[in-house]
Specification:
There is one protein chain. Helix content is about 45%, strand content about 15%. The chain has 15 helices and 14 strands. The protein has helices at about 20-50, 60-65, 75-95, 130-145, 165-175, 185-190, 210-220, 245-255, 270-285, 290-300, 310-320, 330-340, 355-360, 395-410, 415-425, and strands spanning about 5-10, 100-105, 110-115, 120-125, 150-155, 175-180, 200-205, 225, 235, 260-265, 305, 325-330, 345, 385-390. The strands form three sheets. A six-stranded mixed beta sheet has the order 1-11-10-9-12-13, with helices on both faces. Strands 6-5-4-7-8 form a five-stranded parallel beta sheet, sandwiched between helices. It has a three-stranded antiparallel beta sheet with strand order 2-3-14, with no helix packed on it. α1 packs across α6. The relative contact order is 0.14.
């Protein structure tokens, strides 16, 4: 990030989200090409090689049925609670997206419809832990949008398949098909329609740098939710903030991985120094592997900035366009009004990114690497295509057709012009129209 006026770095990151991208790209391109050429067998080969998985790729009905028994009752209740919140928020979004029509001129009706995509491919991270929330966020939102076919994939645990809690979450959401596949091979299976499924119209969901790169390469052949990188989080804090809460909110996001940026913009130098003092001890209190991940992320990607004013803080925050943005300052309404670029905004110390990540309702699949400058996170709207239509009376052709003919001839498109001419000749053959451009 370039230098910003009104900002002093108390701690500057040594690396950026772009570090190491070129190394990933070549590997992913080769894997996608091999899987597209080799189909199911190639995807199975990567599953066996990378995840040590030799079982069913498509989760069979009896495994779906038995997953409830492998999830503690309290956790099942928590998953349903989170699902209800996410569903309610998504339903409110859907209700706000309306079809429309207008009479542009007398006799010319035009409008748009919001039509759900047919097939969504949802990537759910997995492996050591269950990523319940990612299953809930992607599949629930697709289903509320009206997507007919939702296919999910998640990395299998060796010998066990998808974590039972993740599978239960997919079941609660109404997922149609689940695949025991992770990484590039999972993304490829969704995009190419492997294992008897339809090819996905859109790929959504978070993942590591290989998953993100696979989605980036496939974009255009299929839609994707957004270009994504490692999880990132920013806190803006003034003198009213609690430095321990601020420090924990940074550490809580740094544990995502060794390359997860965490940033603090503070308007109070003393608070900034206190946070710098607290963070190493809080990281040290984490268990492994969280401790090592947070240590690396804080060392290489963590930043603390001192802003000379609220306005300077807003400019810096909007430049970073963080995936998650927490504001722990006085006058929250001012910040809500002024801030523009972020994935999701968390106002006040009463809320935190973890709440949004897991249970509170708004989607946690969000733009990273400054993509918040031009897009929001995953929402019902991502699973809808807005398509236009028009219909008009013959009488409306009196105005539309001559203008179309003249503009078309000016642009050298004689065929276009004559599609207007023939309609005027058919319906108004005894009338004269000015269909030529002036010389």
């Amino acid at each position: 990030m370039s230098d910003l006026s009104g900002i002093v770095y108390l701690k500057k990151a040594a690396k950026t989200a772009a570090t190491g991208e070129a190394d990933v790209r070549g590997t992913v391109e080769a894997m996608l090409a091999e899987i597209e050429a080799g189909g199911d067998a190639a995807a199975r080969g990567f599953a066996e090689k990378l995840d040590k998985w030799t079982g069913d790729i498509v989760v069979p009905p009896e495994v779906w049925a038995a997953c409830d028994e492998k999830v503690p009752a309290k956790l099942r209740d928590d998953i349903r609670f989170a699902h209800d919140n996410i569903r309610r928020f998504a339903e409110a979004q859907r209700a706000a997206i309306l079809d429309t029509q207008i009479e542009v001129i007398p006799g010319l009706m035009a409008g748009h419809r919001n039509i759900p995509l047919e097939t969504a491919g949802c990537y759910v991270p997995g492996g050591r832990y269950a990523h319940i929330a990612s299953a809930l966020m992607s599949v629930t939102t697709a289903k509320v949008a009206g997507v007919e076919n939702v296919i999910a994939c998640s990395p299998p645990r060796s010998g066990d398949g998808i974590h039972p809690a993740s599978l239960f979450a997919l079941k609660v959401c109404g997922c149609d098909v689940a695949l025991n596949l992770g990484g590039v091979q999972g993304i490829a299976a969704l995009a190419f329609g492997l294992f008897g499924n339809r090819p996905a119209d859109i790929l959504v969901g978070p993942g590591n740098q290989f998953v993100a790169e696979a989605k980036r390469i496939l974009y255009g052949r299929v839609a994707i939710d957004m270009f994504a990188g490692p999880t990132e989080s920013m806190v803006i804090a003034d003198h009213t903030a609690d430095p321990e809460i601020v420090a924990w909110d940074l550490v809580g996001q740094a544990e995502h991985g060794y390359n997860s940026p965490v940033w603090l913009i503070t308007l109070d130098a003393a608070l900034g120094e206190k946070v710098l003092d607290l963070v190493p001890g809080l990281i040290a209190s984490l268990p492994e592997p969280n401790r090592s991940s947070a240590t690396d992320a804080w060392r290489d990607y963590g930043e603390v900035m001192l802003a000379e004013s609220r306005e300077a803080a807003v400019i810096a925050s909007d430049r970073y366009a963080s995936e998650h943005l927490q504001v722990q300052c006085a006058d929250l309404d001012w910040w809500h009004e002024k801030l523009r670029n972020y994935g999701s905004l968390f106002l006040g110390e009463e809320t935190t990114v973890a709440f949004g990540d897991k249970v509170s309702g708004p989607n946690h699949i969000l733009p990273t690497k400054a993509a918040g400058r031009y897009t929001g996170g995953l929402s019902v709207g991502k699973f809808l295509k807005t398509v236009t239509w028009q219909r008009m009376t013959r009488e409306a052709n009196r105005e539309i057709a001559p203008a179309c003919a003249r503009i078309s001839r000016l642009e050298g498109m004689q065929g276009h012009a004559r599609t207007a001419d023939i309609r005027l000749a058919k319906w108004f053959g005894q009338e004269n129209f000015d269909l030529e451009i002036e010389s």
